[in-house]
Design goal:
The complex is a heterodimer.
Chain A lengths: L2 H6 L20 H30 L9 H4 L2 H27 L2 H31 L8 H34 L3 H30 L5
Chain B lengths: L20 H27 L8 H20 L9 H31 L4 H10 L1
The chains are: A mainly alpha, B mainly alpha.
Chain lengths: 213, 130
Amino acid sequence: MSTQEAAAIGLTHQGSEDTGLGQRGPASKSIVVPYGFWLFVLSDMVLFSALFASYAALAHATDGGPTSNELFHRGLVAIETMALLISSFTCGLAIVAAKRGSMLWTQGWLLVTGLLGLVFLFIELYEFASMIAEGAGPQRSAFLSAFFTLVGCHGAHVTCGLLWIGTMMAQIWAKGFQPHIGRRLLCLSVFWHALDIIWVAIFTIVYLIGTLP
Amino acid sequence: MSEHEEPHAMNVAPGAPHDNLMSETVAYVIGLALALILTGISFWVASTSSLWGPGIAVGLVVLAIAQMGVHLVFFLHITSGPDNTNNVLALAFGVLIVFLVMIGTIWIMAHMNANMGPAPEMMNLMTQRG
């Protein structure tokens, strides 16, 4: 069957045979792959919502130990927030550069994104280490267990994202801007933006509301 | 990237920038500016004493939701256009589940806290070691 025949009976999805009844046939890979990844990201947010819910339920169960007001420092959190927000921005610029096919700018923006992610991760690890050194580790109280689970899970996601950024930089370098590399890069950007969205919820609920007087 | 192969695509992938070269960069810049403003307001609201105390937590949640909206629109390019229907529907379902889980848990656990245990000290032990 030739392509024209297939189009005539509606087996392809060229724009010319739009009947107004929605798209015919499977969408192309450039749509399906990021869409499937979008579904994963949303299910990841559902996972985080369970962690947020348990944190909210346990936030005051301190067992006589340190409270959120005594533990959290807003200055550090502000730096973390800036680092992650700007890295989200530069990740978007990397996508734009990749669309233009500019190797230098794509690699540059991805590098900046990764470095800002590293800054975020180091501050978070420093915070965790100093809390554990003060005796406020995850085993101290239900509040701290929930805190380390929630924020640690986000930190683990950022770590995965950093590994992914490094992988993508190598793949773009080695293979150039092929379609499947472009799809992976787009999925990476969706992942990285989603991490920033979850961080907005964390800094608001855990760090800002948790340290209200 | 591969969007150019199908000029009449009826769907767009989530996170794919819009087609116009200049406007896509501008979208990221606007998104960054709005997110910075909202973040700044959040930190200011949390540290100022000139606002009505009990309302601050609610205000912070509203600011956070607004900032998430900014991220979705300007960074992930979720729009209300017909080519985005699939993305929006998946997002709507995700948001529904997230709200059910969070509000449901907080609501139920608050009621259990209020209805169980005679003394706050007892309550603390029960949530700790239960």
